[in-house]
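SEQUENCE-TO-STRUCTURE ENTRY
===========================
What this section holds: a protein sequence and its matching fold, both as plain text.
Question of interest: how does this chain fold, as expressed in backbone structure tokens?
***
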Amino acid sequence: MNHGPESLWDAIERIRNHDPRFRPEAYGFVMMALGLTVEGLPAERREDPDRRHLAGAELLDAIVVIARREFGAMAPTVFQEWGLLGAGDVGDLVFQLVETGQLKARPEDRREDFLGGTPLLQRLAEGHDLRVPDAPH
């Protein structure tokens, strides 16, 4: 018996049963970042379903900004703990959510849209001095 659409957390559990690379928190964070980004769009773009769609690079940029704001210097560590080691991992996670019906993609959307540019962990660390100081001699 079908009781309606699958919940996000049920979809995440199903995904992780086949591919446990990413922690559940990573999926929740990406969904939260997507929601915040869409809410922040200008009204005329947000109200038009075609223009409201975010490209992979747009979503990745938003994820980096929100992660840096939320986690500060710990953002790279958090993402490593979640299994998100590179932008391609974010693309894989997003497309897992598309495949379960939690997100929608356009025919032209590709996992590769998340690739290119500065590596994810480096982007998350920008502006933070993450070097450990030398021990006193």
